[in-house]
Target: Histidine ammonia-lyase
Amino acid sequence: MDMHSVVVRVGKADVSAEDVLAVARGGARVEIGPDALAEMAAARARIDALAAEPRPVYGVSTGFGALAVRHISPELRAQLQRSLVRSHAAGMGPVVETEVVRALVFLRMKTLASGRTGVRPLVAGTMAALLNAGITPAVREFGSLGCSGDLAPLSHCALALMGEGTAFGPDGVERPAGELLAEAGIAPVELLEKEGLALINGTDGMLGMLLMALADLRRLYTTADVTAAMSLEALLGTDKVLAPELHAPIRPHPGQAAAAANMLAVLRGSGLTGHHQDDAPRVQDAYSIRCAPQVAGAGRDTLAHAALVAERELAASVDNPVVLPDGRVESNGNFHGAPVGYVLDFLAIAAADLASIAERRTDRLLDRARSHGLPAFLADDPGVDSGLMIAQYTQAALVSENKRLAVPASVDSIPSSAMQEDHVSMGWSAARKLRRAVDNLGRVLAVELVAAARALEIREQAAEQPGVLAPATAAAVAAARAAGVGGPGRDRFLSPDLEAAAALVASGALLEAVQEVTGPLA
Model:
């Protein structure tokens, strides 16, 4: 399906994670439903009424943060909102990825459409037009502390709505936002009371990155079950430890049972599993093989918890102050990113550990003292050829970086705004490092795939009989070869093989090939 023909309608009802991914990654079009437009109009009427009152109301007729003590006269309030956005668009560093910015804009628009922020329907409609025109505000890496919202990133988005700053057009070229809006026939927004504040006061950036990480990690955890099964088979391990009666009935962690079932399905029909070498008898396999379901299962359960938090945050309307259904406008602290920041850090820990155990399996495949008959480094002529020796170095470097990225960001806090905002979540930072950790994990699994596929082909050649591999692992090897990952043989330029394997893993094509044999894997 052409995702550009998909339309995501935003109404009073919650949007789904799939909706966010469709807009962020698939370029789906956005519409705002009539129920949401009516809700926004009603809330805006309440803000207009408050703006006309003499008493100060935060965000409507006052300054912001530590400057909230000043009452702003009506003739200065439009300037107040413009100044807020301009001053807060203070990001620095590399440009953030397009999919992240699209998620950021869409999720903020979703909150505006809830009617809890008090902005005019025009503002949300302009955000939808921006998305549909393929205009992506230029958002910088640094600038969010994960509290009071993702302030600088959202401010860069709001600046583009005003026709200021820079943005990327559908062609990916960075240009002045005003030019891009004019070419798309979009009128810049003149912000009124509270609207600038409502545009920048949310956890949308960290939430968008969490939703995308969850989608990627679900694919990678299933991929890890496949590569672990391939390594088990190549090392002549036993699949008896994957029997269902050893998991859910006696240790009822659902992720563990799912991982074991996946591995068992991939290994079904293997002629290699359990064939321990006579010169190296084994009562049990090493932990990296035998405990693969336990480690991957714990990560799967972590994903489930993170998904629950994401679902709750996706149902939230984060702003301060917020317009309540009874018409009251109340200050709150819902912009604090702690719930999201914690699970982002938790996922980085899980990703680091999954990468770590995969690297240990790869190392075992390459070490002739522990590989049970495989040549050193899976080389054609060890000594003359180095085989996959340095591929494991690359994998180890990625694993080491993921361990550093697993250090929690959410335990840190730096006071800001003259001590008014004296405790922050650092959730944006947690999300940024998780994205890198997820990418690294995919590459680690790609190296295990390369090593396990080569080892399986060496076993098949040594067996001198076709069909010794499990049909599913044979399908994985064939998919790798079709993708440009070379098999056993003399040394060659190895980097293209590894990159081809990484692309195969990232695209999901490896899982598709395996599931054509096994049926759906969890």
Notes: The chain has two domains: 3-202, 209-412+428-480. Residues 209-412+428-480 form a domain with the Fumarase C; Chain A, domain 2 fold (CATH 1.20.200.10). The first strand starts at residue 7 and ends at 10. Residues 194 and 313 are 22 Å apart (CA to CA).
